[in-house]
Amino acid sequence: MAGNETAVHATVSSTSSGARARSGTRRRRRRRWIRYDEEDRRRGVRRRAAVPAGGLSKRNMAAGCCGAKKQRLGGGGGAAPSLSPCDGTAIRHGIPQSRKPATIAQPEMGFFCFDVLYCQLHQLDPPKTPNFSNEAFPLFVTWTIGKDMRLRGCIGTFNAMHLHAGLREYATTSAFKDSRFNPITRDELPRLHVSVSILRHFEDGLDYLDWEVGVHGIRIEFHNEKGNKRTATYLPSVAMEQGWDQIQTIDSLLHKGGFKGLVTPDIRRSLKLTRYQSEEVTVSYQDYMTHCHNRRC
After folding, report:
1. Where in this protein does the record put region Disordered (predicted)?
2. Which of 1, 64, 150, 278 could form a disulfide with 197 if both were Cys (CB 3.0 to 4.6 A apart)?
């Protein structure tokens, strides 16, 4: 016991001596800091408080996991505005990072178009309101038929429409009122595919070549031989599916829009071009029937 007690006392004594030594060191450091502070004040220098290593790592982790607070646009102090979520950019540790934009087109939109068409062909009450987004976008509905997916009808609008009403309207308009085709019949239903195209990112082209095959859809405005203003469009997939280059696509689009004369370089240069991109989803009648079965279950 005595040995243990002696050891304890010796430890306490050693600790007290160490404490006194550290206390003296702190006093000397404090005097140096006071001297530095006086010199800094004379120079006009401001020292930043030191941040413990643990606190620094926690601060970075919070920024990385939870994100920085949003800054008000146009705020005072020259603060940089926060980036909007819809521009495809995220902020991580203060550095803009690319982020995949939210997808609008969903398979449920195609199933809804089949619902609308099925009810129309079988003279049933219209389908109930769907669950997908009801944001407003320009849109097109395209019906194709058979294994080779031959065009059966395609009509849409460049005016932004709420998706529920827009798809309900153009599912039937493209099926029954495309002047290039006879109305779709009940017998054709099992062989159909439907594609829903949501149009986005509209930009004025600098000229008739200011677009990229396979990336952009194009809409042109021009005057026909009689001086009447006409418009026509091809969705982004058309030129690539047909194997056309830019000039072949423009010439075909002029003829589609009703231009009957010879297409010359001057005619091409005179037109106004708008380019856009689209999100497209395609479902078959078999996909639709599987969806209906799962929905009932």
Report:
1. 1-29
2. 278
